[in-house]
Amino acid sequence: MNVSPLRDLLVGCFVLAGLLSLAYLSVTLGGLSYRGPGGLQIHATFDEVGGLKPRAPVVIGGVKVGQIKSIQLDGDLRPRAVLDVDPAVGIPVDSSASILTSGVLGDQYIGIELGAEEDVLKGGDEIQYTQSAVILERLIGKVVQNLGADSE
């Protein structure tokens, strides 16, 4: 049995490329990213976060500029999200943050509407204007309740 060393090398390279591709897909689909220690952490407090999860994207105009680092309850028992955003993006202090849904039943993310001020948020600052998540079950319940009241 005469096995070519070149063929063994090519098969090994092919297997290695496949393993590296699987590792890349696992990290990418898992939402893990490394930007180093330079991320700007800002806070946003909401009344209701719905299905918002850590590592969900933070977008401005449809472009991802960061992700949610964590969601915890603050002293007033309101959900407070810590956003890890790119420091190169200057977010004005009068900007607003909304919890949005991609598609009808898709994942939730935070969308930032930029304000007009020249001063920008710094690390540890709070976004003052927030809009909570729309809970689909509550919305349907209100519609059903209103339809029932109209038929009486």
Q: Could you describe the 3D structure shown?
A:
The chain has 152 residues and is of the alpha/beta class. The chain has two domains: 1-30; 40-136, no CATH class. It is 27% helix and 30% strand. Strands 7-1-4-3-2-6-5-8 form an eight-stranded mixed β-sheet, with no helix packed on it. It is flat.
Q: How is the secondary structure organized here?
A:
Blueprint: H1 5-29, E1 40-45, E2 57-60, E3 63-73, E4 79-85, E5 96-101, E6 108-113, E7 126-127, E8 129-131, H2 136-151
The pLDDT mean sits at: 87
- Can you count the beta strands? 8
Give the helix/strand class: alpha/beta
Q: What's the structural domain tally? A: 2
Major β-sheet, in short?
Answer: 8 strands, mixed
Low-confidence stretches: none
Oligomer: single chain
Number of helices: 2
Order of strands in the sheet with most strands: 7-1-4-3-2-6-5-8
Overall morphology: flat
Tell me what portion of residues adopts beta-strand conformation. 25-35%
Radius of gyration: 23 Å
Q: What separation lies between the terminal Cα atoms?
A: 88 Å
The SSE order reads: HEEEEEEEEH
* Helicity, as a percent range: 25-40%
